[in-house]
Write a structure and sequence with these properties.
Length: about 675
């Protein structure tokens, strides 16, 4: 049977393409319709009598499905409508994307992501998707750990000149930084937001303050840099804190100190100390990690005197009394130089040491390595005590070790809770440093603080085992002088010796175990490397590259292997001056150390190289670095490189063919550019 209204059907390909969709609404009548289509005249009416009602039916089905949160039915209705009439009204389209985003099913969220990309790809429809819809989609993608897709949406918004509200961006980052790749993406995107803000600020745009990252955002991402060991990323973000003029709170100060420690920048953390030392007693526990980081740096620099002074300062903090005038000063932002306070145009970060964000999602605890918080006091760990012992012993300065131990014995205790002097003497005896142990014993006695009977007997037992009878007799006389002779009966001494020998054979103290590890690890990194790196960092920040190179060459001449920081500082120094050719030479140095000296591959260093080669137009080097990253199975933020390429080289060799190349060099460069375009997904 042929329907009577088929005479109105025109012969148009558009209607033929809609056939499969219409068949669902007119089952049993569609084949005759197609037959009539094939015989209709082109002069027939172009409007279908049922077309308007079909549109209304599809819209009704879509609205009902969205209202009832029926994803499957809603998606099918949307697909049918788009096939026939294109995209529905803006509000309905955004409602669909949001509901797909809120689904806990990865596949529906992926459909929302693909739909947004398809809509945005069509230039005429670029305004269909609202900014708040994109924000919700980015948050959902981050929540489902689809970090790369979330980055695409965030950067899509940034291309439109939009940044999510800071409280929502903080939620996005909170999910991103749960993984290492997400942390990389968060760092890179935050850097782009900061650049965008600085650009708006330079133009004195009123919207600049809206996109300015706040302290909570920086705190969250900097903490991720510490957790995933990204020192170079963290250092870059610290500089962006300074450039954006963001005032950081106490939690962020602690995290900043950890990143400075990871990069071996002692001068900067020392300047922080001048302000941290003045905080009230209530903040001592919060800044435990800060003092731990600074003490660690003193040991890395082999500066035992600075380490001892820090311990004295910590000791004085236990008796700190709050000063109202000092508290007023601490409640005002103060500036800390990054690089050196001697640089005229150096960067400065603004801190408030006693400011705590009420809504902070990061409560940094950090590692408990050298300093613990016990009984409302900062106390030394066995590891810290072991480093002091080895440091002073190596320099032959046992008397100064004794002074340190005695001066803090009333305030600071080792983890075991016993006397510092007794612990140190026991460790020295275990390693056979009997003379050092006896010196500490003598110093304690001379200071009017003789040690207990067990400590004397431990040393006496060691002398007896080594058959050093003369020194043992002198020690017995010494015990008489300090009134320990009441327990010197032969039976008591013999029984004590037996107990000591038995206990020594069965167990080692925690301090001894720690000392063994310290002595095993102490020569892994030569302390002078930190001094050299600090000098290189200073000269690079001051853009004095010739002086930085002199320090580097001196370093190599002394057979001191450079670190990742060494090359990163030089790279960034050259980059700040646009000296990309020099970076290619430095890349040769890096490869030489990687090949012959076991220099570790580092993703952040590769990224610095890649982005600078891209800016300089060295595409052969770009692909070489990409090859190294691929061999090491390292994640690459392709979208960031794509944006940078389009910003600088959008039309480079876009229409040039291989047959049009004039020289062999141009042909090779064309091949590398095309290879890079393919890698980042530029069609």
């Amino acid at each position: 049977m042929v329907l009577p209204f088929t005479r109105y059907i025109p012969l148009h390909n558009r209607l033929v393409r809609r056939a499969s969709t219409l068949q669902r609404f007119f089952p049993g009548h569609f084949n005759p319709i197609l037959q009539k289509i094939s015989t209709s005249s082109s002069s027939d009416c172009e409007r279908l009598p049922w077309e308007r009602s079909t549109q209304a039916i599809l819209l009704g089905k879509l609205k009902t499905a969205l209202r009832n949160h029926q994803m499957h039915e809603g998606w099918e209705s949307f697909q049918d409508f788009r096939t026939l009439y294109g995209y529905p009204e803006v509000q309905l389209l955004n409602q669909l994307i949001v509901q797909l985003s809120y689904s806990s099913n990865h596949s529906w969220t992926r459909k929302a992501f693909d739909l947004v990309l398809q809509v945005v790809k069509e230039e005429n429809n670029s305004g269909l998707v609202h900014v708040d819809t994109l924000t919700k989609l980015a948050l959902s993608l981050a929540r489902l750990q689809m970090s790369t897709s979330a980055a695409v949406i965030l950067r899509l918004m940034l291309d439109k000149g939009c940044v999510p509200p800071m409280h929502l961006l903080c939620l996005v980052f909170l999910h991103l930084v749960k993984t290492e790749i997400g942390a990389y993406i968060a760092c890179n995107y935050l850097s782009q937001v900061c650049d965008f803000y600085i650009c708006l600020k330079d133009k004195k745009a009123q919207s600049a303050d809206v996109v300015k990252p706040d302290a909570s955002i920086f705190c969250l991402v900097l903490d991720a840099c510490v957790r995933f060991n990204l020192p170079l990323k963290g250092l870059l973000l610290i500089e962006l804190v300074a450039l954006t003029g963001t005032v950081v709170d106490a939690h962020t100060v602690v995290i900043v100190s950890q990143i400075l420690e990871m990069n071996g920048l002692r001068d900067e953390i020392r300047e922080l100390k001048d302000h941290i030392d003045s905080v009230s007693a209530a903040f001592i526990r919060l800044y435990r990690q800060f003092y731990d980081s600074l003490l660690s740096l003193h040991f890395k620099f082999n500066d035992i005197d600075a380490a001892a002074k820090l311990v004295f300062d910590m000791n004085s903090s236990h008796n700190r009394h709050d000063n109202k005038e000092n508290r007023k000063d601490l409640q005002k932002p103060c500036s800390i130089a990054i690089g050196s306070r001697n640089l005229r145009a150096g960067l400065k970060i603004h801190i408030e040491p006693e400011l705590l964000q009420n809504d902070s999602v990061v409560k940094p605890e950090g590692r408990q390595d050298l300093i613990f918080y016990r009984g409302q006091k900062l106390v030394l760990s066995n590891r810290a005590l072991a480093k002091f012992i080895t440091g002073y012993k190596k320099d032959g300065r046992i008397s100064e070790l004794s002074k340190l131990l005695l001066s803090v014995q009333e305030e600071l205790y080792s983890v075991a809770g016993s006397s510092l002097c007794s612990d140190a003497i026991g460790a020295c005896i275990h390693f056979g440093w009997l003379e050092s142990a006896h010196d500490i014993l003598d110093d304690a006695e001379a200071a009017g603080s003789p040690l207990d009977w067990d400590t004397y007997m431990l040393l006496l037992s060691a002398y007896r085992r080594r058959r050093m009878q003369r020194v043992a007799n002198a020690l017995l006389k010494q015990m008489t002088r300090v009134h320990l002779d009441k327990e010197l009966a032969d039976d008591t001494i013999h029984e004590h010796f037996h107990c000591v020998e038995t206990s020594d054979s069965l167990v080692k103290s925690n301090l001894v175990v720690t000392l063994v590890q310290i002595l095993k690890d102490e020569d892994r990194i030569f302390p002078l490397v930190y001094e050299f790196n600090s000098s290189i960092h200073f000269f690079c920040m001051a853009r004095m590259m010739e002086d930085a190179l002199k320090v580097y060459r001196r370093m190599v001449e002394m057979n001191i292997q450079p670190t990742i920081q060494t090359f990163a500082y030089l790279l960034r120094g050259y980059s700040s001056l646009g000296m990309y050719r020099e970076i290619t030479i430095l890349w040769g140095e890096i490869k030489r150390f990687m090949k012959g000296c076991g220099f570790p591959a580092n993703r952040d260093l590769y990224e610095l190289l890649l982005i600078n080669f891209l800016r300089g137009g060295y595409f052969e080097r770009v692909m070489e670095v990409i090859g190294h990253m691929r061999d090491q199975n390292m994640y690459a933020d392709k979208l960031m490189y794509k944006v940078e390429f389009l910003r600088l080289h959008k039309n480079l060799y876009k229409s040039l063919k291989a047959s049009d190349a004039r020289t062999e060099a141009q042909l090779k460069r064309l091949e590398h550019v095309q290879e890079f375009r393919k890698w980042v997904g530029i069609v």
